[in-house]
Write a structure and sequence with these properties.
The chain is mainly α. The protein is built from six helices and no strands. The longest helix is centred in the C-terminal third of the chain and has 35 residues. Helix 1 packs antiparallel against helix 4.
Length: 208
Amino acid sequence: MGPLVMTGLATFGASMGIGLLMSGTYPTSEPIDGSVPTSRGLAIVLMAFCTGLGVLGVVVGLLAVMLAATIGPNDSLLAAVPAVAGALVGVAMIVRNRPSLNAALVPISISFIVAMAMLGVMVPVIATSLGDPGTKHPIDGPFGILGLVSLIASLAIGRTGATAVRSMNGASEEVRRSISGRQIARSGIFQATGVVVTVIAIVMIVRI
């Protein structure tokens, strides 16, 4: 499979991860105090983690395109369709549960998800607009597996993040700090996994 399948899977995972994360939020009137960890603040940070994994997948796709990879119609669909599908499902998850979610986070989460869909569609659009296909060469490899690893990492951030955010409800400041710190560290590990597979994908593309 070509690099664009990794783009599609990474953006799909990012949107789904954000949708899962939002399921753990709840209506709250937490104080806006930078010194006190809040569930809203943690949720936004974790959304950024998921988005980062999606962006890394887009970087892989763009690099392949810029290095003159052969991008056929099927490759374009492998990038665009999962990106759009993930966005639709992610937004549907949020809209369906909106009454029980933190209202302040709903537009933020949807904005992140829409951005993922736009980036996923952008890669094949750029590929289509570039050069003569005759000057290009195919790039094949286990990009599907690498994309699945990225997808799973995003889902893991979303699932564990939802649990962490939910557990902050009614907790003391000390407990909030502990929960927030542990979850950010845990998400950092998942993020590092996504970085590793991205580096592997980039090395594969550059060496071909």
